[in-house]
Amino acid sequence: MPGILHLTDCMDVCLKNNTCKAVNFETGLCVLLRTLPGEQTDPSAQSQYPVFTIFAQKICLSDKKRVCNKGWAFERVKGFEMKKYSKKSVKVMTRLECMQMCLNENDFECRSVNYDSDVNECSLSDMDRHSITYNSLKSRKYGPSSGSIDYMENNCIEEPKKLCDFRPISGKILKTVDSVYENVKTIDECKEKCLSSPYRCHSFDFGDPTNSVCRTSHLDKNSLSHIENPYIEIPGATTYELVSCYNDISNSLEFEIKMKYNDVECDVKQQSKGQFTNDIVIQHHDMIVTTQDLLLNVHCKYDLSNKSISNNVNLAVDGDVDTSGSHSETVSSPNVTMKITDLFRSDISSAQVGDSLLLRFSILEKSSPYEIFVRELVAIDGADLSEIVLIDSMGCPTDSLIMGAMDKSDGDGQILEARFDAFKFPTSDVVQFKALVAPCLP
């Protein structure tokens, strides 16, 4: 069926056809299938055209809590899994039962599941590819599985109305998209098409030098790792990917904002042991700052001191007991600073591209028994917050030409430093650095 420009339209045709079991969709082409993979032929085989094929299979689910009004219920990624985010594991006999368990979950909002067909285990999670951080993706917390595990993402969840920012990616567009809209005049109109899609839209592109149309997709860099070469490079074209959203509250004085104090992606600051602070802006207008806006400075204090718990127990000891001494001590976590210096370890206030510098991490308390280990070091563009990973989750440099390895300074494990040549992003002269620093005992 040529000429179908929306994946949801292709699925609707299949839903109304009793003999249709699945569809193959490529932008502008919808193929109805009477067989499933493994029955006679393999309709999900790779396309011979310069696109990638989306395969959708008809299933029957019953949501006890609500009706799923989205274009599809789940997205399945064969041979991939979400690691370390499971909140509940249950035994089920089929993949369909696993999806049903996710829809029926009452204790938390189930955003994704892993299904292991070898042991019939269904792992439910309140996280998905778009809710975990980009650093978590880089550290393979979502990635290829052992082979028997499939990842399935819930598309039925109702996310709140939001104001969203998109980051432009120049020079390339997706080979296959979910929807194509003609006669769209502006980028803002195309953005609105994406945000009002009957699926969780995460990217769109608007026109290229030869064709001015709006195309939207549920895929972005976070969810394309299982597709080989998903983009077409076109000079002058731009893809816009969803990067952040803000809570948009309408006609209500009650709302809720969640901030994790230990999330490096959040702007929560630790002032002292057990004391955290953050700034929250309540803005009346969607796009501009006015005198009616309210800035809240939030302080939270937690009692992190050690507690002694005692209980009376009647014990009887026969014979003599040798007396032994005991000693215990509590050592607080060290305070660590990060700074950029020249090669002589002198402080600097600015640098030019190409200057030889040192990035240094050091423990302030010289009496501390701890040493430190640095991982997940990220450089962030000061303008659009785009980022590159310099040191991975294992503590190894991703590109030694940009950032060298973290080494002890003069053999001191309390001071780590890495040599690098100053660099910048194309859109900003400001480069921010962020890292996870773990204390460890030598």
From TrEMBL:
It comes from the Eukaryota. Residues 213-442 form the ZP domain. Residues 68-156, 164-245 form the Apple domain. PROSITE patterns: PAN, ZP_2. GO terms for biological process: anatomical structure morphogenesis. Pfam families: PAN_1. SUPFAM superfamilies: Hairpin loop containing domain-like (SSF57414). This is Uncharacterized protein. The lineage of its organism: Eukaryota, Metazoa, Ecdysozoa, Arthropoda, Chelicerata.
